[in-house]
């Protein structure tokens, strides 16, 4: 299976909106050249986000270290210790307070699937264990046009070609957010965090 950063690159190539992001591989030596590259990548951004994943198998642990929307220099400092344990993703900070919907979509080539989402100011990581008194919304569907939730029907319709583009017969899981603001590489409201095999 391709690495997470490679799958994000595919989504970008296919015309989908993804975060501005770079990967620092496990074991990378952090020297002055890389520090300059990190600062150049961040540009004038005052804050950045760090995501990490297991360098051997990203699918065995989804709860690795995560530092959302922290000061850029603090993020760069954290990278220097995190690369001894993880592959590290250094990405634009997207304000959770602009999130309208976040969640996971399972989608097959025949357009059947299901979704688990939260509506409101949440992150994809919150979906598995929502905060107290927050209801996770879920729906199974046999075909996209019969999805009950009109917002989700529109989102999933936009993503319906992804299962046709990947080599996974069983379908895919797609992580996404819908924002009030324009975000990501393409400056759109809908942003994709990744896809991976279903099951």
Give me a quick take on this structure:
This protein has 199 residues and is of the alpha+beta class. It has helices at residues 4-13, 32-42, 72-82, 150-159, 162-165; strands spanning 21-24, 47-53, 66-71, 87-92, 99-107, 113-119, 137-141, 172-183, 188-197. It folds into two domains: 20-92; 96-197, D-amino Acid Aminotransferase, Chain A, domain 1.
What features would you describe in this structure?
The chain has 199 residues and is α+β, with helices and mostly antiparallel strands. It folds into two domains: 20-92; 96-197, 2-Layer Sandwich (D-amino Acid Aminotransferase, Chain A, domain 1). Helix content is 23%, strand content 33%. It has helices at 4-13, 32-42, 72-82, 150-159, 162-165, and strands at residues 21-24, 47-53, 66-71, 87-92, 99-107, 113-119, 137-141, 172-183, 188-197. The strands form two sheets. The protein has a five-stranded antiparallel sheet with strand order 7-6-5-8-9. A four-stranded antiparallel sheet has the order 1-4-2-3. It is globular and about 55 Å long. The two termini are 14 Å apart.
